[in-house]
Amino acid sequence: MRTCVVFSGAGLSAESGIPTFRDSNGLWENHKVEDVACPDGWQKDPALVLNFYRMRFEAIKACEPNEAHKSIARLQDKFNVINITQNIDDLLKRAGCTDVRHLHGVINQKKCEHHKSITVLDGDINFKCDYRAEQTTPVELGEFCVKCGGQMRPDVVWFEEAVDLKYDIIADLVREVKYNDGVFICVGTSAQVQPAALLIPFFAQVKNKFIVDRKPHRIADYVLMAGNATEQMRLLVDKLLED
């Protein structure tokens, strides 16, 4: 079975009612990013951070997968589909996608504040704890790690923390797609900021490659599909399943 790698950003889930990013005034749902999504903010006011993510948890739980998520799931009829997403929602999984890799973590998991996955950029923090668990209700202040006693936090990657992007794995995927007539799709992201700005050049050598976005950034040799993710992904998936 041929492999299809789908790299997705906020635009994939926007039509499900999940905000794409910060407002034009520089605030994220009426909060400064450094207050609610940075290690310093966590140290200063963990209660504020947890309340912010409680609202995000509840908002995402109330949303449903849209037709773009479902179209990606349909690709599994013909392709080995590997999703690499910047989104912290679980809508791809709820749509039926079986292989979803979250670069920025996922809202329905929690981890210890000393988890070994946490790497602060330009810092010397070296955490050791490995406790991570599913969560059906938002993390609360005073909810402590069963292994080391640290405060639990959402399993998401904050600004100033490193994303879970292993370049050797990406290189293997590029080879798999390139030499086995696979497909690469970038959907719902401008592809101009990290990590999208790295992945797009990585997959440039692949023959079958597409960018789906409201205003796709022109990149040589990529097929650009401008418009809503729901409409454009339906058209693209229909075509790929027919070929």
Mean pLDDT over the full residue set: 91
CATH level-3 fold name of the largest domain: Rossmann fold
Shape: globular
Strand content: 15-25%
Q: What share of the residues lie within helices?
A: 25-40%
Helix tally equals 9
Cα-to-Cα separation, first versus last residue: 14 Å
CATH homologous superfamily caption of the largest domain: TPP-binding domain
How many domains?
A: 2
Main sheet makeup: 6 strands, parallel
Order of helices and strands: EHHHHHEHEEEEHEHEEH
CATH architecture verdict of the largest domain: 3-Layer(aba) Sandwich
- Low-confidence stretches are none
CATH class division of the largest domain: Alpha Beta
Walk me through what this model shows.
Helix 5 runs parallel beside helix 9 (229-242). It contains nine helices and nine strands. The longest helix is centred in the N-terminal third of the chain and has 17 residues, at 46-62. Helix content is 32%, strand content 20%. With 243 residues, it is α/β, with parallel strands linked by helices. It has helices at residues 10-13, 33-36, 39-44, 46-62, 67-74, 91-95, 167-179, 196-202, 229-242; strands at 2-8, 79-85, 100-102, 105-112, 132-134, 152-156, 183-187, 208-213, 223-226. Strands 3-2-1-7-8-9 form a six-stranded parallel beta sheet, sandwiched between helices. The protein has a three-stranded antiparallel beta sheet with strand order 5-4-6. The mean pLDDT is 91. The chain has two domains: 1-18 and 65-104 and 165-243, Rossmann fold (3-Layer(aba) Sandwich); 19-62 and 109-156, SIR2/SIRT2 'Small Domain' (2-Layer Sandwich), CATH 3.30.1600.10. It starts with a strand and ends with a helix.
